[in-house]
Amino acid sequence: MVLWAFNPLAIYVSSMMGQVDIVIALFITYALYLYKEDKLFISVIFLALSALIKPAGLILIPLLALHNFVTNKKITESLLLTLTGLGVYLLGVLPYLGSIAYSLLPQATTSLISSLLTPS
């Protein structure tokens, strides 16, 4: 295990090739730890930060809020958790919403789906 951690190829692939999954795992793991320690709002902020790297962490925000509602029966706190997490995510995405990539996204998605559904 130690040899693999210091393997130059592993370091190159994980850092130079854009493999940032370990950073997402760090944020999600820390968020779950904070949630366990009852630091709920800081937890969803770290989940939102992980979602800014890759949207995989975004699904955990409402799931943690739902778990909080089931265990504590506080609907307002659960809604605030969801809004806090999504708000932090939207604040991070907001500067890029006017870019050309976001304006082309619906067209690209529609053409991809139609090309997959049309028999050739």
Category from helices, strands and their pairing? mainly alpha
Distance between the termini: 48 Å
Give the count of helical stretches.
7
Largest sheet: none
- Quote the average pLDDT: 82
Percent range for helical residues? over 70%
Low-confidence stretches: none
Beta-sheet strand percentage? under 5%
Number of strands: 0
What's the helix-strand series?
Answer: HHHHHHH
Number of domains: 1
Estimated radius of gyration = 19 Å
Gross morphology is: extended
Protein name: Glycosyltransferase RgtA/B/C/D-like domain-containing protein
Transmembrane segments: 12-33, 40-66, 86-105
Organism: Candidatus Collierbacteria bacterium GW2011_GWB1_44_6
Keywords: Membrane, Transmembrane, Transmembrane helix
Could you explain how this protein is built, in words?
The relative contact order is 0.09. The protein has helices spanning 2-5, 8-16, 21-36, 40-53, 60-72, 75-93, 100-117. The protein contains 7 helices and no strands. Helix 3 runs antiparallel to helix 4 (40-53) and helix 4 (40-53) runs parallel beside helix 6 (75-93). The mean pLDDT is 82. With 120 residues, it is mainly alpha-helical. The termini are far apart. The chain is extended. Keywords: Membrane, Transmembrane, Transmembrane helix. The chain crosses the membrane at residues 12-33, 40-66, 86-105. This is Glycosyltransferase RgtA/B/C/D-like domain-containing protein. It comes from Candidatus Collierbacteria bacterium GW2011_GWB1_44_6.
What's this entry about, in short?
The protein is an all-alpha fold.
Key structural traits:
120 residues; mainly alpha
